């Protein structure tokens, strides 16, 4: 028997030309025609061959195979980039303070302050936090009470919306960016979804009472379904004020009976005064499942927003935002090839690879700015919840706060003020600026009842003398209470 010979597959002429050119850098048309045995039809218009590449010292336009050009551009950017040593994670808080403008005095110019708050909201687009933290902490830490008071008028005027993102949690986002961070929550139940049928026109706005009139449930049950629909991201309101009012009332409504005696003394069925939530409510538009190409573009849009928020991205930050790492990593790699981000290791203590925006690279090369600032533990600028080897950090809960001097952690407030921890000595001058956090908590939460200071009973603490110089302090044999003087 004669052995059969295995034949090699024959490449099409166009494919063969592309394969050959993939081994070379940018070349002129004349050089390509001289190098190739035959110039295949359609070569000069093939999308795998990039036309218009410029080479230093030569005004002639060149051609280059696309994937090879991507590799060459990455190598060129790597060579031109100044070496940047990774910074210790202890520098990350100061980097974030500069990224978010924390610790700066708010401008007295109302128009400029409005612009600053709008810019800050854009940086926080898609950020999810508890309603209490959004109302009392996030903007106050950046712009003070004056800046935070502008939120109600900025939201509709500048194109921002809020969406439910879990029980008693909301996110703020630009209108066109909100769909990137919202989706049907696991908390949704059939009755909550059915409630949205009362919003017959998806483009219209409705009052609470108008939707309730179409529903046969009791007020308490309807109110439960209403807020379940809110937390699930199914409905929302144009105004932010309803969130503050609902939070103040613990999201509960009570039926208020009016007199059941008519003016002529005839008894009649009890009537109830109108109760409900203010505001103009609407159904949040649903999103169709994206195609693979659209899903990739949405991941790139999310990455751009998060780069504006963090400057440097890695797996821990992506996951903490509630996003999946895999599609984000793919988008980051594509953006790295396009020159939008730079890959590397920028902070020790965070996993690699890490990706930084051009603005972040510039900030990383600047020296640490000395400023005093504070944040809630759930703030995006907080190092809590990243799994760091940092023993002094509290849990990532809305009842915890941190005060810094540059990157030095000065004070931690836990359990809504029941526990304080000072990481500096009593005589340290950095202690007094950190107490602005205590002043803020007294202003927004009222009195603080201290149980322990630095793991000792509060009434025994040497730090009480410092606290007494700033606040009214009432102490007895087992507790200490702080209030604004």
CA distance, first residue to last residue: 106 Å
Mean of pLDDT:
86
**Strands, total number:** 19
Oligomer: single chain
The percent of residues in helical segments reads 25-40%
Structural class: alpha+beta
- The percentage of residues in β strands lies in 15-25%
Uncertain stretches of 5 or more adjacent residues: 1-8, 256-265
Q: Determine Rg (CA atoms, Å).
A: 30 Å
Strand order of the largest sheet: 11-12-13-14-16-17
Count the DSSP helices: 19
Main β-sheet, in a few words? 6 strands, mixed
Descriptive report:
This protein is 36% helix and 16% strand. By secondary structure, it is α+β, with helices and mostly antiparallel strands. Among the domains are: 13-79; 86-128 and 289-398, no CATH class; 407-483. Strands 11-12-13-14-16-17 form a 6-stranded mixed beta sheet, sandwiched between helices. Strands 3-5-4 form a 3-stranded antiparallel beta sheet. Strands 8-10-9 form a 3-stranded antiparallel beta sheet. Strand 12 and strand 13 (408-414) form a beta hairpin. Helix 5 runs antiparallel to helix 7 (138-148). It is flat, with a radius of gyration of 30 Å.
């Amino acid at each position: 028997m004669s052995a059969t010979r295995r034949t090699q597959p024959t490449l099409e002429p166009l494919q063969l030309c592309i394969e050959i050119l993939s081994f070379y850098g940018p070349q002129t048309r004349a050089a390509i025609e001289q190098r190739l045995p035959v110039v295949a039809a359609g070569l000069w218009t093939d999308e795998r061959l990039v036309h218009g590449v410029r080479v230093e010292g030569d005004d002639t336009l060149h051609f280059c195979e696309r994937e090879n050009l991507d590799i060459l551009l990455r190598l060129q950017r790597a060579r031109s980039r100044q070496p940047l040593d990774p910074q210790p994670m202890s520098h990350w808080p100061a980097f974030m303070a500069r990224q978010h403008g924390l610790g700066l005095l708010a401008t007295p110019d109302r128009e400029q302050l409005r612009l600053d708050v709008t810019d800050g909201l854009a940086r926080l687009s898609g950020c999810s936090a508890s309603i209490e933290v959004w109302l009392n902490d996030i903007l106050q830490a950046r712009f003070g009470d004056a800046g935070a008071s502008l939120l109600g008028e900025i939201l509709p005027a500048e194109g921002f919306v809020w969406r439910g993102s879990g029980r008693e949690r909301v996110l703020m986002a630009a209108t066109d960016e909100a769909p990137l961070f919202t989706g049907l929550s696991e908390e949704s139940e059939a009755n909550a979804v059915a409630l949205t049928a009362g919003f017959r026109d998806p483009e219209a706005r409705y009052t609470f009472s108008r939707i309730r009139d179409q529903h046969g449930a009791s007020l308490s049950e309807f109110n439960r379904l209403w807020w379940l629909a809110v937390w699930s991201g199914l409905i929302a309101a144009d105004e932010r004020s309803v969130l503050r009012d609902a939070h103040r009332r613990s999201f509960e409504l009570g039926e208020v009976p009016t007199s059941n005696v008519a003016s002529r003394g005839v008894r009649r069925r009890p009537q109830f005064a109108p109760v409900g939530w203010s505001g103009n409510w609407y159904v949040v538009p649903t999103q169709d499942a994206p195609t693979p190409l659209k899903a990739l573009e949405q991941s790139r849009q999310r990455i751009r927003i998060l780069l504006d928020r963090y400057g440097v991205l890695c797996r821990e930050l992506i996951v903490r935002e509630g996003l999946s790492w895999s599609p984000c990593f793919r988008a980051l790699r594509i953006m790295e090839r396009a020159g939008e981000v730079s890959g590397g290791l920028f902070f020790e203590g965070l996993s690699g690879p890490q990706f930084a925006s051009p603005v972040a690279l510039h900030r990383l090369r600047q020296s640490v700015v000395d400023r005093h600032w504070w944040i809630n533990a759930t703030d995006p600028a907080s190092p809590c919840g990243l799994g760091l080897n940092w023993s002094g950090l509290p849990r990532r809960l809305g009842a915890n706060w941190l005060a810094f001097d540059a990157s030095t952690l000065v004070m931690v407030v836990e359990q809504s003020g029941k526990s304080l921890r000072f990481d500096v000595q009593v005589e340290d001058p950095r202690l007094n600026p950190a107490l602005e956090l205590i002043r803020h908590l007294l202003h927004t939460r009222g009195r603080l009842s201290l149980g322990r200071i630095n793991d000792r009973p509060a009434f025994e603490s040497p730090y009480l003398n410092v606290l007494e110089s700033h606040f009214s302090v009432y102490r007895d044999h087992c507790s200490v209470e702080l209030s604004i003087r």
